[in-house]
Amino acid sequence: MSTPYGSDRRPGPEGEQEQPIRFTDRRRIDPLTGEVRTPEEGGAQQGAPAPGATPRPQPEPEIELDDPRIADLEKQLEERTNDLQRVQAEYANYRRRVDRDREATLVSAKVSFVSDLLTVLDDIARAEQHGDLTGPFKSVADKIAGVVAGLGLESFGEDGELFDPSLHEAVQHEPAEAPGPTVTVLTAVLRQGYKIADRVLRPAMVTVADRPDTAPDDPAATAEHTSES
């Protein structure tokens, strides 16, 4: 190898053979192992690799299958996996709870708004029954009905429906005259009932009567019921 000043080998006196240049590594930290050298090792080491030289690859330590460190690592991996699964389950429950609370808050806001319009809807229904829902008044009524329908408002209570105490408020009851099993049905709806989703804003005010409990597809029972009516 040559240097800026010529060859790295210098001729000896009187034609002696050239002597290679040698280095003494006096570094206190071993560049290969990273360990601190003793003064004897640092001063006595001859022929150490020059700075920038490529270190020789060191053989990897062999790990036995029955090494207790492997069992410890497997235990730590199992614990971390269980922790991640628990955190994922908690986050999923949190998301479901937040969605449920958001939906409940939205329904409560709709109920609060629409409840103030129930008396207006009653006035519109009475005007329609008396034939006064015409002209601009009908146009306004249709727009109000469209708004409340868009908020999820549903009306219930029709003649002939089965009586449900959670939906209907009975103000008059006519018992059945014939013996045997009976069912209670609506005979008249005095005031319409309303609900949003599964929340009842107002029960329907109705009159009810007991009727014989007969199957709808029984022709004889249907003919008998029709003749009695």
Largest sheet descriptor: 3 strands, antiparallel
Please give the CATH class of the domain at 154-229. Mainly Beta
Question: Which CATH architecture of the domain at 154-229 is right?
Answer: Roll
- Reading the helices and strands in chain order gives EEHHHHEEEEEEH
Number of strands: 8
* Distance between the ends: 124 Å
Q: Which structural class should the secondary elements be placed in?
A: alpha+beta
As a percent range, the share of strand residues is 15-25%
CATH superfamily of the domain at 154-229: Head domain of nucleotide exchange factor GrpE
> For the residues shown, what is the average pLDDT?
78
Keywords:
GrpE_CC; three-stranded antiparallel β-sheet; chaperone; alpha+beta; disordered C terminus; about 230 residues; Nucleotide Exchange Factor Grpe, Chain A, domain 2; three-stranded mixed β-sheet
Structure description:
- The protein has a 3-stranded antiparallel β-sheet with strand order 3-6-7. A 3-stranded mixed β-sheet has the order 4-8-5, with no helix packed on it. A two-stranded antiparallel ribbon has the order 1-2.
- It has 229 residues and is of the alpha+beta class.
- The longest helix is centred in the middle third of the chain and has 48 residues, at 68-115.
- A hairpin with a 2-residue loop joins strand 6 and strand 7 (199-202).
- 40% of the residues lie in helices and 18% in strands.
- The chain has 5 helices and 8 strands, in the order ββααααββββββα.
- The chain has a domain at 154-229: Nucleotide Exchange Factor Grpe, Chain A, domain 2 (Roll), CATH 2.30.22.
